[in-house]
Predict the structure.
Amino acid sequence: MDRDRILTSLRERILAFATSRVSREQAEDLTQEVLVVLHEKYPRVTELTELVPLAFQVLRFKMLDAHRKAFRRGEYNQESVEDLPLADPGADPAAQLDQQQRVDRLLSALAQLGERCRELFKWKLEGKTFPEIQKIMGQSSINTIYTWDLRCRKQLLASMGGSWE
């Protein structure tokens, strides 16, 4: 038997083995790669008793390489995007209610505070720094602003029942 006929019959055996392990399309590709390796790197191997084990050894290496490559790329257990459920862009009603209740409690507690504390919180929420607030309030010492801030936060916490939640 000449080498081409041996490779033709060997191709069918390689393809059958590869198809039992992977998809038909991938098995075709692997079979072609094995035949290319046999043709380019082992042209002197002509005996069927040597060629069959060599071909299957190359096939096993190619299959392992394909498996490692697919795993590395994240293709191994990949799910179709169409099968995944769409995320709901809105918050769930329970979270919305909880958030609204916290905002209502905060607004009620802020209304109970004095004018200075409300102004201080307003400026902090506007993003003003303590030195800027010091100038706005006309104070000579920044430590006074720090003290007022601490006291106002304590009053707010007490007005909210001792917890921010």
Observations:
- The mean pLDDT is 87.
- The CA atoms of residues 116 and 146 lie 13 Å apart.
